[in-house]
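Quick question, first post here. What does this chain look like in 3D?
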Amino acid sequence: MSLVSFASGLWLGYSLAVPPGPMNALIAAWALRSFRHGFAVGAGAMSADFILMIITLYLYSALRTFGQGVFVPFFILGGAFFLYLAYRIGKSQPPERREANPGSPLKGYLMGLSLGVVNPYQVGWWLTSGLSSIHQFGVEWAAGLFFAILTWITGFPAAVRAGWELNKRATWLAIKVFSVATLLAFGVYFTAQGIMTLARL
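> Answer (accepted):
Ran it through. Tokens below.
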């Protein structure tokens, strides 16, 4: 395995996973229930990345022939989903430490997977940086990328849980404000992008 290719994948993997955005907002909100819940959302997002990688490799050339119009459904569906999640998180109450039934992590996994495959940022990343890099660096690059994502979806929920243990009220308020504001901003932005792209067709 080429260490240069693996390191390149590692670096680009963090560029995909770390920036504040809808997915990290969702991971943070679910991590307040438990580490497993936050990790499950991240695992769903990572599964979406794997699916997008496979689809991108096979369909990129075909997608480009359709022009910008092919991205409109991703913009509008992604934006609407983000706005819905912002509404749900905005209405939610802080979880109790001994909550009897915080819900199944599987639901979080499916939510992360669903959000990932309609997230214009993730789709756009794979159609640009992802495709060109995997063609240039090969399998080693993909290994480094998914290792980076795995470390992030493990470390980020753990950090949220640590903050929760130190100060529940402050952590809950900070995560709620961050999550709602981020999801609202991306929801409005991507919906507007979809409408403007549709208007230009």
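The chain has a mean pLDDT of 80.
Residues 62 and 179 are 35 Å apart (CA to CA).
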